[in-house]
Amino acid sequence: GCEIVCLDNFNDYYNPQIKRYNIKSYLREKRFNLIEADIRDKDTLKKIFEKYKLQKVIHLAAQTGVRLSLKQPNLYVDVNVNGTLNLLELSKEYKIKNFVFGSSSSVYGATKEIPFSEEGKLKPISPYGVSKRAGELLCSTYNHLYNLSVTILRFFT
């Protein structure tokens, strides 16, 4: 099997103790490495890419929540756009084989098209939705410019 590197900043969007409890059973696995860090810290990310010789990136890190994004839009852009950009830049530099990005159904926003379609119009109406759409666009750009293999997943909650 593969060695897994899990990066989490254990932010307080919901109780960090619950997050730590949920991940506890994986800590016993020899090939599982938990690193407490933030995707906005590019220097730390670079050290992780160098140390672990990553081949694939599954990027699920995000500042989540539509309502809170209305109160803290700068935080959402910083984490979800700048953090994603850091990971894409390092993925390009370290020739990552596949970059998987976790997006959100919030990118659909006020669209009236039902059912939703990947090709449908996107009208995000919150800073969170906009930040996830920006992440999608960055991923598509890195695929186009640098031939980085990218998979985008739009999660619904």
Concise description?
The protein is α/β, with parallel strands linked by helices and 157 residues long.
* Beta-strand residue fraction: 15-25%
Q: What percentage of residues falls in helices of 4 or more residues?
A: 40-55%
| Number of DSSP helical runs | 5
- SSE order, one letter for each helix or strand: EHEHEHHEHE
CATH class: Alpha Beta
The CATH topology name reads: Rossmann fold
Report on this model:
The structure is a single chain. The chain is an alpha/beta fold and 157 residues long. It has one domain (39-155): NAD(P)-binding Rossmann-like Domain (Rossmann fold, 3-Layer(aba) Sandwich), CATH 3.40.50. 42% of the residues lie in helices and 17% in strands. Strands 3-4-5 form a three-stranded parallel beta sheet, with helices on one face. The protein has a two-stranded parallel sheet with strand order 1-2. The longest helix is centred in the middle third of the chain and has 21 residues, at 73-93. The radius of gyration is 16 Å and the shape is globular.
Secondary-structure blueprint:
Elements: E1 4-8, H1 16-23, E2 32-36, H2 42-52, E3 56-59, H3 66-71, H4 73-93, E4 98-104, H5 127-146, E5 150-155
Parallel strand pairs: 1-2, 3-4, 4-5
